Amino acid sequence: MAKLLYSATASLDGYIAGPDGDMSWLTEHLTGGNPTAGRLLANVGAILAGNRTFGGDDPNRGTDSEGAFGGQYHGPVFVLTHRPPAEPPADVTFVGDLHSAVAQASAAAGEKYVNILGADVAKQCLRAGLLDEILIFFAPVLLGGGVPMFDDPGGERVRLAPIPGETEHWYRVVR
Question: DSSP of 67-116, one letter per residue?
């Protein structure tokens, strides 16, 4: 059964995108190999993204590295939205309900991860008790504002447990 994993790169002050969803700050931090990112990519069976994330800024736009995981991901993509485009891309499924989106992405992922992209979808999955793991890569920069990795005013405290053997910030959601 697939696990739901929220992965993101954040600034040290906790933002995954700058003001207005700007991702240009990330370009300089995507150089070199990262063993954890490599293992993650090899184990992603599907992506579940929010509509803002899917249609938002890409730090590699217009290059060979455009797309998820620097253009290295080639697999099923599901977008959670109430406003699908009139002419959706052939390789993307647009879904209007969280539970249906998770079910479809999980079926497509099989035994691999459903990688969640986007803070809002991650928050929805966490609130619904569907999120299994969180992996955050930190970039050595302070953005001072933008899209926080988690923004849930009034939300409940969530306990996390480190994933054994990982050096990055990779945690299991404790239920």
Answer: SGGGGT--S-EEEE-SS--SS--TTEEEESSHHHHHHHHHHHHTTSEEEE
* Residue 34 pLDDT: 78
- Is the pLDDT at 33 greater than 80? The verdict is no
Q: What is the DSSP letter of 43?
A: T
Average pLDDT across the chain, whole number: 88
By CB atoms closer than 10 A (0-12, 13-18, 19+), residue 57 is middle
Residue 63 CB contacts under 8 Å (≥ 6 apart), including other chains = 71
Query: Rounded mean pLDDT of 61-66?
Result: 66
At 131 the three-state DSSP class reads: coil
Radius of gyration of the chain (CA): 15
Encoded tokens for 142: 């302070």
pTM of the model: 0.88
